[in-house]
Amino acid sequence: MAKFNIGRLSLIMLFYGVSSNVFSAPVEYIANGDFETGDFSGWNITDSGSGAWVINDGTFDPTGPGEPLPPISGTYDIVSHQGGPGLHIATQPISLPTAIKSATLSWADRIRSYAEFSDPNQEWRVLVEDTNGNLLQEVFSTNPGDPTQQIGPNNRSFDLTALLQTYQGQQVVISFEEQDDQLYFNATLDDVSLEITQLTLSCVGGGFEPPFSDPIVIFGKKNMAIPVKFKLIDADGVEYTFDDIAPPVVNISYSPLVAGPTIDVTDDLLPLGNANDDNIFRWDVDGQKWIYNLGTKPYKSLGTYTVSVAPGSSDYTVDSSCEQIFERQ
Q1: Nearest CA-CA partner of 292 in 204, 215, 229
Q2: By three-state DSSP, how is residue 8 classified?
Q3: Is the pLDDT assigned to residue 13 strictly greater than 80?
Q4: 250 and 298 in contact (C-beta within 8 Å)?
Q5: Which UniProt keywords are present, listed alphabetically (predicted)?
Q6: What is the pTM of this model?
Q7: Which residues contact 181 (CB under 8 A, 6 or more apart)?
């Protein structure tokens, strides 16, 4: 567990005007959003009342006046149909990462309602919910007075950054819902995407700088100072300094020589001198790098100690390139 003080880091960030506006490539969080598996893999389908969601390859002829339509893209999309009042829901749970910098939900749809829209009984809507079904945000819905025939296809995109930052590290559910109690209603869905960009930083060169670029072996009761030095970059090679992020922190874990569990020994850490506070890396203005003077005296047990870099706030993550070991034999 990191020893750093969040309040102290927050004050440091405010004083230096910290910002982090460059980040890595977006990652797709929807599985089978284009339905090109030809089935509902990745989706939870709930149909109540009359009708159902159906995989459409262009030949599906829905109940009622609606005619077959080709998939919005590719070989398949999905279409709702019914012969009476019903509710048809397609959901997908999403495990959100931390350090969310941007999040965009998009999809393509066709809307064919054969009655005027009402709220919520004759409606096409897209929701974000928690895992208990509680509404977090209505992303989109048809409204009374909207055109009932929107064959399109309609490409829709919404910025969910602020919402998902609130729930980062948790699980949410994306829900596409067609509800009807008047006349026939065919909703078509395809190309669902949730792209999330996360700021992940790496150590330049794939690790710490010398002398800790290679493992260090300490014999017996000998103690030493290990300067842990590195530079952080994002996926685009942009370097991150004290002006960009809250200072990262040192984490240390211990594995005994004999079989036994790995334990966190960060709380035993004592910085050498007055250059570092607790386990917080300092920014070396002259060397333009992060540095921590690590004293090995608290770590007297024989075994392997893994020194790693952890983020100083939830605004970024640090990958496993930023770690090295020292051994006491």
Answers
A1: 229
A2: helix
A3: no
A4: no
A5: Signal
A6: 0.71
A7: 85, 121, 122
